[in-house]
Amino acid sequence: MSSALVDIDVLILAGGLGSRLNGVLADLPKVLAPIKGRAFLDYQLDYLHGLGVSRVVLSLGHRSEMVLAHLEKAKVPLRVETVVEPRPLGTAGAVAYARSAVSSDPTVVLNGDTWLEVDFAAMLEEHRKSRNALATLACVEVDNTGRYGAVLLAADGCIDRFIEKGESHSAGLISGGAYMLSGRLLDSLLAGSGSSLERDVLPHLPQGTLRPYLVQRGNFIDIGTPESYARAATHFEARSAKAITARAL
């Protein structure tokens, strides 16, 4: 467990409608998607706690009452606070709405429907090494960027631009749905009008202020579709088996 993350807030964006999973989850929020008898959110919180995170803020929207009820009865391993959007605000809007609930600089922002195993202590170190970084984005290499949209790097290693979903189907880097956002950037969102971090905010940052942090591809799962949701069960079953084996040794 790393003490480097004790004072770093983690904001999880969990207010989405999850329309692509309606046939699987009905009206259940994606963060409560059941996997091997547990909610997806429980796996996220356990993982963050294991890394040394002590405080999480959940940005809720769709069926927030269900998530709140779950938190009341769940054995949560760390401090969790909640913010409920008055209406769907998009990722940038949700972060801006939750600004007053987070105080660390930087703040980690995660998508609530993404599992990404990141060494956030190392990511924090890299973010702080670059004195002019307004944001650091966890990037994952995949064989086909078409479903996610691609992240292109400039010659200096910084993120240059984003390619929209469906515009490229080649191998490349994608956003892993994990960000470290500086306090200055968080404050600037309060005056912004865009709703999407990756369309309206990050592409317009000054050159050299948006840094990538590369993550191994095997650690990335997006549960946003029925197919990827099914794969998540296999992943967590393997993790559980590995943990049991380690304890036995």
At a glance:
Helices cover 32% and strands 26% of the residues. It is α/β, with parallel strands linked by helices and 249 residues long. It has a single domain (3-248), classed as Spore Coat Polysaccharide Biosynthesis Protein SpsA, Chain A (Alpha-Beta Complex).
- Poorly predicted runs of 5 or more residues: 243-249
Largest sheet: 7 strands, mixed
Describe the strand arrangement of the main beta sheet, using strand numbers: 5-4-1-6-11-8-12
What is the count of helical runs? Answer: 8
Mean of all residue-level pLDDT scores = 88
Alpha carbon gap, first and last residue? 20 Å
How many domains, as an integer? 1
Beta-strand segment tally: 13
CATH superfamily: Spore Coat Polysaccharide Biosynthesis Protein SpsA, Chain A
CATH architecture: Alpha-Beta Complex
CATH class: Alpha Beta
Order of helices and strands: EHEEHEHEHEEHEEEEHHEEH
Q: Hey, roughly how much beta strand do the residues contain?
A: 25-35%
> How would the global form be characterised?
globular
Gyration radius (Cα, Å) is 17 Å
User: Which fold name is given in CATH as the topology?
Assistant: Spore Coat Polysaccharide Biosynthesis Protein SpsA, Chain A
Question: Which range best describes the helical content: under 10%, 10-25%, 25-40%, 40-55%, 55-70% or over 70%?
Answer: 25-40%
Return the structural class.
alpha/beta
